[in-house]
User: Which sequence fits this backbone?
């Protein structure tokens, strides 16, 4: 029985020491304010003042932790800037005895900066994310990691239609990008400074621009029935290399040339 008691005490002390080591790790990172980690003598634990776990008696240990307060707060911030432009122009060619109408449309999106700050010491601060198309956490637009945000995106559309048929031509251009955020320093091996959390290094950081061409056709079988066809990525352009095994499926076409057929009914 006595041996069992000693074993239990040793196990308890072992667990307590592990907790203490974890607490000291937190202290070493600087997150030991008494507003969050309350001690018996109201003195923050530190490497010089490690304190200790409970002893099982009513006598407190110096700097013994008796409460941990979890207080939610929002330290993160995002600063962004940019603009959107949209223009359209419609005209016909009746003066030349050509039936139907032409429509020209232009959509332009520009993001000049998208700076994300976690607000957490010891992490990368003020990360400039514009142009980062890495497929990892950036597999969606404007998410908790910043998302996949390009400098420029252009879409131009030319449409012609009459009472019988119509055609749509669409051009999509995506500006060049990078595989990391813009805090990363590009340098050649042997000439790079020591990387840091704030400024890591890389020897190549470029993603090519992309140009897609789409085609659409429609035919009015009757006033209430229309058949249509759409071809996305008509030239079958493959997605660019983004520095990972997977590609960014939010921005780039990872399928290739794709055909769509359908019918529209209006009753």
Assistant:
């Amino acid at each position: 029985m006595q041996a069992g008691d000693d074993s239990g005490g040793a196990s308890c002390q072992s667990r307590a020491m592990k907790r203490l080591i974890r607490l000291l790790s937190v202290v070493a990172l600087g997150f030991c304010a008494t507003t969050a980690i309350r001690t018996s003598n109201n003195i923050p634990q530190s490497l010089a003042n490690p304190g200790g776990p409970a002893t099982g008696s009513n006598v407190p240990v110096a700097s013994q932790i008796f409460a941990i307060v979890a207080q939610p707060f929002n330290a993160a911030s995002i600063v962004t800037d940019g603009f959107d432009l949209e223009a359209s122009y419609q005209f016909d060619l009746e003066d030349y005895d050509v039936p139907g109408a032409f429509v020209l449309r232009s959509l332009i999106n520009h993001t000049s900066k998208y700076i994300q700050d976690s607000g957490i010491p010891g992490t990368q601060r003020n990360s400039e994310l514009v142009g980062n198309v890495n497929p990892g956490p950036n597999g969606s637009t404007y998410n908790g990691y910043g998302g996949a945000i390009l400098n420029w995106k252009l879409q131009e559309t030319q449409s012609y239609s009459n009472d019988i048929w119509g055609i749509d031509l669409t051009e999509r251009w995506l500006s060049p990008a990078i595989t990391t955020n813009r805090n990363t320093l590009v340098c050649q091996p042997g000439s790079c400074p020591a990387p840091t959390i704030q400024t890591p290094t890389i020897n190549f950081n470029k993603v090519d621009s992309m140009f897609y061409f789409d085609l659409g056709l429609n035919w009015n079988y009757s006033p209430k029935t229309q058949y249509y066809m759409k071809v996305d990525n008509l030239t079958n352009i493959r997605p660019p290399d983004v520095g990972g095994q997977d590609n960014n499926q939010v921005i780039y076409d990872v399928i290739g040339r794709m055909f769509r057929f359908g019918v529209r009914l209006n009753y």
Summary: The two ends are 88 Å apart (CA to CA). The chain is about 10% helix and 35% strand.
